[in-house]
Amino acid sequence: MLALGEGDEALAACKRALALRPDLAIMHFYAANALRAKGFEAEAIAAYQAAIERDPRLVEAHNNLGNVFRHQGKTEEALLCYEQALTHKPDFAEALLNAAQLLRENRRLADAVAAYRVLLEARPGMAEAHLDLGNALKGMGDAVGALACYAKALELDPDYAEARWALAMARVPMVAESESELEASRSAFAAELAALERWCGERGAEKAARAVGTQQPFYLAYQDADHRESMARYGALCTQLMGVWQKATGLPMPARITRAETRVGIVSAHIHDHSVWNAIVKGWLQNLDRTRYDLRLFHLGSAHDVETALAKTRATNYTYGKSDIVEWTQVILGHQLDVLIYPEIGMDSTTAKLASLRLAPVQAASWGHPYTTGLPTIDYFLSAQALEPPQADAHYTERLVRLPGLGCCYQPVRIAAAELDPGTLGIRAGAPLLLCPGTPFKYAPRRDGVLVDIARRLGECQFVFFTPQPAEPMQRLRQRLERAFAAAGLDPAAFLVFVPWQKRAAFYGLMQEADVCLDTIGFSGFNTALQAIECGLPIVAWEGDYLRGRLASGVLRRMGLAELVTRSEGAYVDAVVALARDAAHWGGVRERLVAARDGLYGDLEPVRGLEKFLDSAVRK
């Protein structure tokens, strides 16, 4: 009965059976399933535990109990349940798959890979497991291994849309070994896009649409080149597939509604303490004129904290926790928005699906992911006058909007820096300390020589990198850098230090001990630059040709510190060496930086500019 959707009848039948035979483990199990289907998780947990108490070998009860804990975010409890199931039945495919997926979701990718491989020994024909294994390997930076898994999944199931999509998106590596590898990956991605278009045409758009957003060409943005053409082709495919899906699902197109205020929706997976929220969305939400603009938040993510609570108090409406793309689409359409803004597109699968649909008359992206979306459904890209080069309009498929200044109303994240002994992290005293705070994929192979040149010029210094989880991508970068230093006759161990990813207070403490922050070349760091400025740490920035390479340089120019902005490798090296060697120069730069930083905070001009954009866009 439960399978037919008759949950109440199923639960009542279980209760009648248990009244007669309370020792029947299977009836407790069925009751638990019915309770879980009705959303009564606490009662379901008790019923699963009652079933297990009566029959510890009932592996389905262990597995389903793990699923409840997984839904509640209790990772360790869920893993223990799956392990208990596998103790009694080592080849229980469902528990193996659930455990592997949970490990992958929690970024324990090496453990997830091991679990998937155990599963595939038992079930080698399980296409889903091959796809998931590929996703785990991709997250570890193993593009070759990931591609092999996707190909195998597609071999087992030629209609597997998610595997075919992944096979195209994974052509771009996370951490490349050489510049030639990056160039080859761009060509391979373009060819795969063409092949993917043909495949989707053969299989049908409605079937292929389920794969949209499951993977995205995220790492393409980290290659310092113009990818507008590829992104336009990718975006056209996404919107074509999702448009067919929208029509087939019976979802209406949005209509213009005349009202006094402008109704604005913001869709984000990061309405919490996150760089997108801190840099962009928070200032909008706090400072837009609420007598004229009705703001409605759609929180796609799962993280909640004090910033989420603040967001709820500032929004007219806050929506969270919808189960799937259909429900999210229905909810957003139901709000009858005038303008829909996606602060970051390209970082989350649900966001990608929604952004490929037309859910409001006017739709815009912003620079939470500072890169064109390629989507015909996105009309505008909200950027900043201080961050864009003069020729920037040609970089976007959207109409570029340059909001005044830095494009955002930023407030510093006030954190007390932790007292830190750098020696506990393997950092020796006395040598200039140069922080390299970027994630591994921000470091392009052709710029490795910049660090080598700095080391050669200074003679003694330490480049400090931070290792996020999973650690394997940073290990790949480390090996590449070690080869570059060794090839130049320099001892990598004398110059390269890799420390664990730090919590913000410890990171601030280390910034206060450092001499220079090295902005990443080609894909800059906005929040990182502002954190360094808060700590009084001088930054050397590279001013690139695209928005994503100009975030820190735009901030420095805004502060009147243009001498820290460089446009060539030689100038970058000179600026770092000057700060590291000349204490008087360093002190003067730091003094000016500290004096100018308050001018970055609380700038309302970008918000007023956003209001003008909203008025104009709605009129048009």
What this model shows, in words?
- The chain is globular, with a radius of gyration of 26 Å.
- The protein has helices at 7-20, 25-37, 41-54, 59-71, 75-88, 93-105, 109-122, 127-139, 143-156, 161-169, 179-203, 205-208, 228-249, 275-287, 306-314, 325-334, 349-355, 448-458, 472-487, 492-495, 504-513, 526-534, 551-558, 569-581, 583-596, 605-619, and strands at residues 262-268, 293-299, 317-320, 339-342, 362-366, 380-384, 399-403, 433-436, 462-467, 496-500, 516-518, 539-542, 565-566.
- The N and C termini lie far apart (54 Å).
- Residues 1-5 have low confidence and may be disordered.
- Strands 3-2-1-4-5-6-7 form a 7-stranded parallel beta sheet, covered by helices on one side.
- 52% of the residues lie in helices and 10% in strands.
- It folds into 3 domains: 159-250, no CATH class; 262-411 and 604-619, Rossmann fold, CATH 3.40.50; 422-600, 3-Layer(aba) Sandwich (Rossmann fold), CATH 3.40.50.2000.
- Helix 3 runs antiparallel to helix 4.
- The protein is α/β, with parallel strands linked by helices and 620 residues long.
